[in-house]
């Protein structure tokens, strides 16, 4: 009897890994064994098969039986059940598994027919992601890169699983920094209507045209204001006075603040667009200020907020803490609120907002803020502000220069994000131009599109994103545009090129009236590519669980390499038969779709040509 006749189709939605584990559970159960260790892992050596099961070893001790005896019994059941071409017991009790060609082909065909490429849809949750966090009147800089890139990738990964995501930028648009800036603007632009004796006569809305200055001026004015307030107590007192007036609703200052916020957002959104980063909400610290006074009063009344040396704190230490946990400071002795105050009020606002009502809130913020978020989360739970809501800090490491230290400009200043991106785009333009010139010298007749600005931007941005996302989130990484834009090695352009290369093969096939057909798996390179494609759903699931886009970056790079080996070993257009050609076209189509989908989850677009 043929294997595809005796083997039942896998349940709807079951991944290849899921089906294999189910077969293992059935075999363990048939042997009277507990199924807790009935799991397959990738084989340590490909010549042994695609997978191996090591469950006999941990069971041997608890059952008092030799592990090889247990492994042999399981192997016998697996051979009888189908699904494997080879089942062998090796070593101390390992079960090596070579999947059947029919099983691989069936899963490949199902994955090809699935628009989601096999990604398993999870029970739908409303998940809020907080990333970006820029301040108004300041440009985005290198410190914002990881938050934006990682946050956007996590948003896409979670949406791919069927979750309902809400992304918020959480602007730094309130507090003393605004009073400092308003004071400096009053010095440099005293004739603005918002500073008139009757501020209610100020324009209902101010913009860049009516103000007479824009983002470049704000970027110049804020450092002047900060330096002056640091050196001059009188200037600091003035800034505090103007901050109080703004927060009290002074109509002129409110109009100016709104204009500053709008000007800043307009420029920052250009950087968001360059990175293809999406936000559902553009809220800021200002949006929760009205909640803070009643929140602090309530915490005092409930005995959660207590006075300590004139300040208001919340004790967040717990009995099982391995290290001392300092209290959360919510208000200084002068009554001034802090970032923690705003963050706690923001949790309260998000949970109470029926339009948001998240089951999870994920903060994609620098790992150096881990203590801050642990304190805020504990305070929120103690106050009952987030009942049933999972609060998560997805921290990340720093972007470093080639010296291994946090990335700086050549002058030692903080690098602006736009400059970083433009630098990578310039490097991509140079590299693409050199490749086009080399191809032209060889008579390849390279399409002039390789010189296009659009392509340079796609490759440059992909290089930056992939370099960031291929690094383990909590680790730092070295920002090296020269290496990032290479078409060799573990880079974004390399994976982009693999996608484009497959697209070129499929286009040539279509021009020859060749179409994909039923998938057959025979050659080892076909097995390897189909099996690697089948791993995609479990990789996405793991990346979502661990909040680790680097797992997908690693995967697409490995898949691109696997396709390259397939293409060398298995002629597609020149296959030995029409059936083999049609099958390999289908396998190539599957590989391209999975690569494209994986790159999309990283926020990386694929050009049509390179």
From TrEMBL:
Motif interval(s): 'HIGH' region: 134-144
The entry's keywords: Aminoacyl-tRNA synthetase, ATP-binding, Cytoplasm, Ligase, Nucleotide-binding, Protein biosynthesis
Annotated GO CC locations: cytoplasm
Pfam families, per database record: Arg_tRNA_synt_N, DALR_1, tRNA-synt_1d
Any GO BP: arginyl-tRNA aminoacylation
UniProt-listed PROSITE patterns: AA_TRNA_LIGASE_I
DNA-binding found in the keyword field: no
Ranges where the Arginyl tRNA synthetase N-terminal domain occurs: 18-99
Reaction equations catalysed: tRNA(Arg) + L-arginine + ATP = L-arginyl-tRNA(Arg) + AMP + diphosphate
The protein's Enzyme Commission number: 6.1.1.19
Molecular function terms from GO: arginine-tRNA ligase activity; ATP binding
Top-rank EC class of the record's enzyme: ligase
SMART domains with a match to the protein in the record: Arg_tRNA_synt_N, DALR_1
Compartments reported by the entry: Cytoplasm
Domain DALR anticodon binding positions: 495-610
Subunit structure: Monomer.
NCBIfam families (alphabetical): argS (TIGR00456)
Record-stated family: Belongs to the class-I aminoacyl-tRNA synthetase family.
Protein name per the record: Arginine--tRNA ligase
Protein species of origin: Pseudoduganella violacea
Gene behind this protein: argS
